């Protein structure tokens, strides 16, 4: 998943997404070129024009008139009734269930491009601009595609003390090759680099405060922020065991160069011994687990399940440093068609970290890839990224989705859709579930909102979502909403 989101404490945030017209020449669908009975007409339905007509019954001569006892001729017999001919039975068109898999042409050889400009910014990062793109190849009935390539390039420029320079960057390139070794192996290598000058950090626990203390030694606007800089190389490889179960193997190499602003919350926690990994650091990790996948399609699932359960081990370098940890996690997802194209989707995330855990992992979760959770675009939408940090996380996401209007532009096929969602969850700071930093009571964090989907061709969906959460109001009263721009559905 590629995307960007609103992060940290910022002033007015504006994200404008502009569609780019890429190469237009498309290959005509083989489905449209098929004869009518292969395109949805029920070939087995009776057709009066083709059905043989039975031969007419032979005409019998009328019987000779008879006489009565009195010798008068009897009235002639009435002719037998003739059955009216049956009207022709029209052919019956096959019924298309809108909740079935999208009617994607997997057979016609073609390459589908898709891309968007990203324009935005805020007072912390300056003017942000970039490009999100995708290229997918279809041929020979390969599902979901023969291969796919994703690209995200974003950067921002800002005036810092009289000189204009690059303030924030994120670059991602990813490939997905699903049919290696006769279709038994699928691999997704990728590389990511980001440098965020306004990454959030509010401390550990479920009851951390977003209120500035009365006295701040450094810049008050940076008190709940830090600089997060990371280079990541990773690969997710699925090996078919027995359909629908795959073995997942996910090695990741990370280089971290994070830094705390003087007098910030992260700086204070680091001096108090509550933070690990705040230095230049390599981290290698290996995750192994199981994937259970019965989705009807990956682009926009209507039915089925997609479960991930795994164990991850990680080691920091230099090896005598303070990072050596492990995690056990599960992401359980299901989809239910409701009729008329509506889909109910739900997800549960359970994640636990233990050992010498680096602080940046405390606001991420996932059995194979560590996504930003509980706050951020992949967790509780509306809760800022980095708002809550802890080793144990529990999150539930519910969505109602619908794809509706289709249209064609610059020779490309598009479709619009919407979603509404409710996310909730919380974190725990220790395994006794009694940490003072977690507070008392249920402590549930939540976010609610909606979004717009734009499907481009057969392999790309881009979404823009807006979410409200009490945590967004507390962290940034000037813009109390979370705005997220990403590719694909969230889960």
Task: Provide a descriptive summary of the structure in words.
Mean pLDDT is 82; it is low at 6-54 and 62-101. The protein is globular. Helices cover 3% and strands 49% of the residues. The strands form two sheets. It has a 19-stranded antiparallel sheet that branches. Strands 15-16 form a two-stranded antiparallel sheet. The protein has one domain: membrane protein fhac: a member of the omp85/tpsb transporter family (Porin), CATH 2.40.160.50. It contains three helices and 21 strands. By secondary structure, it is mainly beta.
Secondary-structure element pattern, one letter each: EEHEEEEEEEEHEEEEEEEEEEHE
- Helix count? 3
CATH secondary-structure class: Mainly Beta
Largest sheet: 19 strands, antiparallel
Principal-axis shape: globular
**CATH architecture name:** Beta Barrel
Q: Which percent range fits the helix content?
A: under 10%
Write the layout of secondary structure elements.
Blueprint: E1 3-5, E2 16-19, H1 30-33, E3 110-122, E4 126-138, E5 147-160, E6 163-180, E7 185-200, E8 225-242, E9 245-257, E10 259-260, H2 265-271, E11 280-293, E12 304-317, E13 324-339, E14 342-356, E15 364-365, E16 371-372, E17 392-409, E18 412-428, E19 445-456, E20 460-468, H3 470-475, E21 482-487
Antiparallel strand pairs: 1-21, 2-3, 3-4, 4-5, 5-6, 6-7, 7-8, 8-9, 8-10, 9-11, 11-12, 12-13, 13-14, 14-17, 15-16, 17-18, 18-19, 19-20, 20-21
């Amino acid at each position: 998943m590629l995307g960007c989101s609103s992060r940290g404490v910022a002033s007015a945030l504006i994200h404008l997404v502009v569609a780019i017209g890429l190469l237009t020449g498309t290959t005509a669908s083989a489905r449209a070129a098929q004869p009518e009975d292969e395109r949805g007409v029920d070939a087995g339905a009776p057709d009066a024009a083709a059905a043989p007509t039975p031969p007419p019954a032979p005409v019998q001569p009328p019987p000779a008139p008879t006489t009565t006892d009195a010798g008068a001729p009897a009235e002639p017999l009435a002719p037998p009734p003739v059955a009216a001919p049956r009207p022709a039975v029209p052919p019956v068109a096959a019924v298309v269930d809108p909740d079935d898999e999208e009617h994607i042409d997997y057979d016609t050889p073609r390459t589908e491009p898709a891309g968007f400009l990203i324009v935005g910014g805020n007072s912390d990062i300056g003017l942000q601009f970039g490009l999100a793109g995708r290229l997918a190849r279809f041929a020979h009935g390969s599902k979901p595609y023969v291969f796919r390539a994703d690209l995200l390039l974003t950067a921002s420029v800002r005036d810092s003390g009289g000189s204009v320079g690059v303030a924030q960057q994120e670059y991602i390139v990813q490939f997905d090759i699903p049919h290696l070794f006769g279709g038994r192996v699928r691999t997704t290598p990728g590389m990511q680099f980001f440098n965020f000058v306004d990454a959030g950090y509010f401390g550990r626990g479920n009851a951390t405060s977003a209120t500035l203390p009365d006295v701040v030694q450094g810049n008050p606007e940076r008190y709940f922020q830090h600089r997060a800089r990371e280079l990541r190389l990773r690969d997710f490889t699925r090996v078919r065991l027995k359909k629908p179960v795959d073995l997942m193997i996910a090695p990741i190499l990370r280089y971290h160069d994070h830094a705390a602003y003087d007098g910030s919350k992260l700086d204070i926690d680091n001096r108090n011994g509550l933070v690990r990994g705040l230095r230049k650091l390599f981290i290698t990790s290996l995750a192994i687990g199981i994937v259970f996948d019965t989705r009807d399609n990956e682009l926009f699932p209507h039915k089925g399940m997609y479960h991930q359960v795994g164990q991850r081990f990680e080691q920091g370098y230099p090896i005598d440093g303070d990072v050596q940890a492990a995690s056990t996690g599960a992401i359980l997802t299901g989809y239910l068609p409701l009729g008329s194209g509506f889909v109910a989707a739900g997800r549960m995330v359970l994640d636990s970290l233990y050992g010498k855990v680096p602080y940046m992992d405390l606001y991420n979760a996932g059995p194979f890839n560590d996504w930003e959770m509980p706050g951020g675009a992949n967790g509780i939408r509306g809760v800022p990224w980095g708002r809550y940090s802890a080793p144990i996380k529990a999150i539930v996401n519910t969505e109602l989705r619908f794809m509706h209007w289709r249209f064609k532009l610059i020779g490309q096929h598009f479709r619009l859709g919407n979603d509404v969602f409710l996310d909730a969850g919380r974190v725990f700071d220790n395994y006794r579930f009694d940490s003072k930093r977690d507070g008392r009571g249920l402590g549930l964090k939540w976010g609610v909102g909606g979004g717009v989907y734009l499907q481009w061709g057969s392999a790309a969906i881009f979404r823009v979502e807006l979410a409200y959460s009490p945590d967004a109001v507390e962290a940034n009263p000037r813009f109390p909403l979370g705005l997220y721009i990403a590719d694909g559905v969230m889960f």
